[in-house]
Design brief:
Elements: H1 2-23, H2 48-70, H3 78-97, H4 101-126, E1 129-130, E2 133-134, H5 139-173, H6 180-211, H7 222-252
Antiparallel strand pairs: 1-2
Helix pairs in contact: 1-2, 1-4, 2-3, 2-4, 3-6, 4-5, 5-6
Length: 253
Amino acid sequence: MPESAWKLVFYTMSWSYSTYLLFFTSYSFFHDPPSVFYNWKSGMSVPTDIAIAYLIQGSFYGHSIYATVYMDAWRKDSAVMVVHHIITLALISFSYAFRYHNVGILVLFLHDINDIQLEFTKLNVYLKSRQGGYYLLNDCRLILVSITFRFWFRLYWFPLKVLYATCVSSLQSVPSIPFYFFFNALLLALLLMNIYWFLFIVVFVVKVLKMKEVNDVREYEDEDGSRVAAGLLRAHEAESNDDDAGHHISAQG
C-alpha cells in the first residue's frame, strides 16, 4: 500500500508537469506531433524545463529497476515489468543524448496518466475492507474508466501521435536522421508491452464480473508460488555454497 501511494503521488506530479509543458507553454507537440522534429539538429541544446522532466523520470525508472528486482514481490508480469523499465530508461537516456527530447515529453504524457489511474485503483482495492466494512469505490467503474483511458492514450494516441511522428514525420523533416531504426524499435516494443498489460486488465475485469471479487491476476497461485519460492531458495543455497567453496580455495591459496 505505501508503494502504491508513493507511485500515485509521483505519477500525478510528473503527469501534471508534462501537461503543463504541452498545454501551457509554447510547445505544440501534442496538437502538432510532426513539430517534434522541426529545426532538429544534432547536439542542439535541451530546454531547461524539459531537462528537469528528464532528470526526474530517469531517476525514477532507474530506481524502479532495482525495486522490481530486489524489493517488490515477484509476480507473473515482473519480468515484463523489468524489461519495460529498462526500455523506458534506455529511451529516456538515449533520446536525451541524441536530442529526441521533444518526442520523450509526448511519450511521458501519454503514459503517466494511466499509471495514476492504476495506482488509484490499487489503493481502493487495498482499502476495500476495514473493520468489517466494504469501502471499495465502485470496482467496475474504476476499472472500466482505467481501460478506456489506457486504450485511448496508449493504444490509440501513442501510435497516432508518437509512432507516426517518429516513423514518418522524422524522415520528412530530417531524411538522414540518426538511430531511426533503433529508437523506433524501442517504441514499438513499448507498444507491444502496452498491449500486453491492456489484455491483463481485460482479464482482471472479466474475473471481477464473474467472481465478484477483486484480486491481482498477476499474483502466482499458491502452488506456483511455492515452486517459485523453492526454486529461488535452491538457487540461493547453491550460490552460497559456491561462495563458501571459493572462499575456502582462496584461503588455501
